[in-house]
Amino acid sequence: MKPLVYSLIGLSLAGCSKGVMVSIPENLQSAELPDTGFLVGSIGASTIWPSTGENLKTTLYFSRADSEQHITVTNSNDSSDFRSPTTTSSLFSVPLPSGNYLLHTITFTGTDGRKTVHTQTGKQLDLSFFIQPGEVTYLGEFIASSKVSRSSLWNTDYPNGKGYLTHSYALERDRNFFYKQHPELSGKHFNTVTLKVSHSQLLKLQPLSDPES
Which residues lie across from 96 on neighbouring strands? Predict the structure, then answer.
């Protein structure tokens, strides 16, 4: 079946805060089913020069553990829900049938100032999590940065368009914003996923301290 971008079926529940687009196979569209849970997190970019990720397009690829169909969350940094002195980011929320899921691939599209640059994780990440019926699975925050090169002409550092992600947690902020966006879901329990090991240099994990859930 063809994936359907959630903006076509109602943003009230699915996916899309500012600057974020979610795509999901039709057979996994489940906002009205009794076993539906919610995948929630935030995605954005560093604003620190020269490693800023604001010019990167970042896509997270998920799938059910028993399927090869892709669920994607893409951020193009067109706008944002949250801004700090060092980052900008937006919330994503995706209603999904309960079950085991994987974050398996991350891709980046950027530019080195002359040409388009594509980067992606090599070996599958296979970071697993479970969607509980009627509850929220919180995946944390993903912030994109660009690797840095030095211009031999200008003798200055610049973002070369090759991306990587730093993962951390902003649970209280993201949970409060989710409840504000969806007051009808304000009673939903948040389960925080602890990502412990990354086998890719393109995903850097920061430790979770005193997780709330």
Answer: 37
213 band by pLDDT with thresholds 50, 70 and 90: low
Whole-number Å distance between alpha carbons of 164 and 167? 10
pTM: 0.88
Domain residue limits, the chain: 3-35+43-189
Angle at 191 between CA 190 and CA 192, to 5 degrees: 110
Tokens of 90: 């937006």
d(CA 199, CA 123) in angstroms, rounded, equals 8
Q: What distance in Å separates the CA atoms of residue 211 and residue 188, rounded to the nearest whole number?
A: 17
The answer to whether 123 and 25 are in contact (CB under 8 A) is no
d(CA 17, CA 181): 9
* Strand ranges inside 98-152, DSSP E: 99-111, 116-120, 127-131, 136-150
Q: What's the token pair of residue 71?
A: 């669920």
Q: What is the pLDDT of residues 124-157, one digit of tens each?
A: 898 999 999 999 999 999 999 999 998 877 888 9
